[in-house]
Design goal:
Length: 326
C-alpha cells in the first residue's frame, strides 16, 4: 500500500502543470489555518492533480473583496464572514472544518484582572467591530462568560492582533482578546497571563472553515473534493505527532526567537508548541459544530450585524467532505 501511494504521488507530480486543474484559494493569515500551508508545502495538492494558488489575506473583508471580484474559488476563513455575506446575497457554502480553538483573553499579571469577570470597567483590546472574532467576543466572551455589556461595562479598543500583546504589556489596555501565535509569544515573555481560554470554555469549538463559491461548486466540484482530500492529509499530518508541521508554521509566520523577562531565549518552535495547547485541527464538521455556528449566527442577529435570522443548515454542505472520505 505504501509503495502504491508513493507511485501515485510520483505520477501526480509528473503531470504537466498545464494539465492540472487550476483553483485559487484565499486564506486568512492565522496559525490555525496551517493546514493550507502544509498541503502546499508537502505537495498534497499536487498529488491530487491540482494546480493550486494560495493567496494570503489579513482579514475576512479583504477575502470577500477577492471573492466578489472572481479572484478566488474557495477560502479558509472564519464562519461569521461567510454567513454575513450569505445574508447579503453571496450564497457560498461552508464545506469543511479547519481548526478548533485559538482565542483567549490575556492580561498583565499586575493589572488586577485575574478572571474574565474582572473585565468590568476595564479597557480591552479587540478587533474591528462586526468582524468574525468580534462576534465571538461580544456574543460569548463578554455577553455570556463575563456577563457584561460591550461598550457599556467595558471599553473595547479596536487594533490589529499583532499590536495587542504590546498594548497589554505597555498598559495601553488592561487586557486583550487575542489568538495564536500572539498569545503564546506574550506568555513566553513572562509579563502576561491567560484569564480566559475559549477552548476550555467550549472544547473544540469550530473557528476557521473552508468555504466555496456557488459557481465553484457547480463548475469545479471534482476539484473541490480533491482540495478536501489534500486538506484531510494535511490535518492528519499535523495530528500525527505534537511537533509535526511546527517548522513549516514557524517559517510561514516568521516567528523569531523570543526573550523572556529573565533573558532566556526561546526558539520559534517553542511558541508553536505552546500555541498548540490552545488550538488543534480537524476536517469534518460535526453536529456539535453546526450548533455552535448557529449560536454565532444568533449572536450576529442580536448584535445587528445581520438583518434576519439564518439557519446554519442552509449554508453548510457536508456532502463534499463525505465524498472526499470515500
Amino acid at each position: 500500500m505504501r509503495k502504491l501511494s508513493l507511485a501515485f504521488l510520483l505520477l501526480a507530480l509528473a503531470v504537466p502543470v498545464h494539465a492540472r486543474e487550476k483553483i485559487k484559494i484565499g486564506w486568512v493569515f492565522a496559525m490555525a489555518n496551517a493546514p493550507i500551508l502544509v498541503a502546499k508545502e508537502k505537495g498534497y495538492f499536487k498529488a491530487q492533480g491540482l494546480d493550486v494558488e494560495i493567496l494570503q489575506f489579513k482579514s475576512g473583508p479583504l477575502v470577500h473583496q477577492a471573492l466578489s471580484a472572481g479572484e478566488l474559488d474557495m477560502a479558509y476563513i472564519g464562519s461569521p464572514p461567510v454567513y454575513h455575506w450569505y445574508s447579503r446575497g453571496l450564497k457560498s457554502r461552508i464545506i469543511a472544518k479547519v481548526n478548533y480553538g485559538q482565542a483567549a483573553v490575556i492580561s498583565r499579571k499586575d493589572s488586577g484582572v485575574n478572571k474574565i469577570s474582572d473585565i468590568r470597567g476595564k479597557r480591552l483590546a479587540g478587533v474591528r467591530k462586526g468582524s468574525g472574532m468580534d462576534v465571538l467576543l461580544r456574543g460569548y466572551v463578554l455577553g455570556e462568560a463575563a456577563k457584561v455589556k460591550p461598550d457599556v461595562d467595558v471599553e473595547i479598543k479596536s487594533m490589529p492582533p499583532a499590536n495587542m500583546d504590546a498594548a497589554v504589556e505597555n498598559k495601553v489596555v488592561d487586557a486583550a482578546f487575542i489568538w495564536e501565535p500572539f498569545t503564546s509569544k506574550s506568555l513566553i515573555r513572562g509579563n502576561t497571563q491567560v484569564i480566559f481560554d475559549m477552548n476550555k470554555a467550549v472544547p473544540k469549538y469550530p473557528w476557521y472553515i473552508i468555504m466555496a463559491l456557488p459557481d465553484t461548486l457547480k463548475k469545479k466540484r471534482g476539484a473541490v473534493v480533491k482540495v478536501l482530500k489534500a486538506h484531510k492529509q494535511a490535518v492528519d499530518y499535523l495530528n500525527s505527532k505534537p511537533t509535526a508541521g511546527n517548522g513549516i508554521i514557524a517559517k510561514a509566520f516568521r516567528l523569531g526567537n523570543t526573550k523572556d523577562i529573565n533573558g532566556k531565549i526561546h526558539k520559534a518552535t517553542e511558541v508553536v508548541a505552546m500555541a498548540r495547547t490552545r488550538l488543534g485541527w480537524e476536517y469534518e464538521l460535526t453536529d456539535k459544530d453546526v450548533k455552535f455556528i448557529q449560536r454565532l449566527m444568533n449572536y450576529s442577529y442580536r448584535l445587528g450585524y445581520i438583518k434576519k435570522k439564518l439557519n446554519a443548515n442552509d449554508l453548510i454542505d457536508r456532502s463534499l467532505m463525505a465524498e472526499a472520505l470515500k
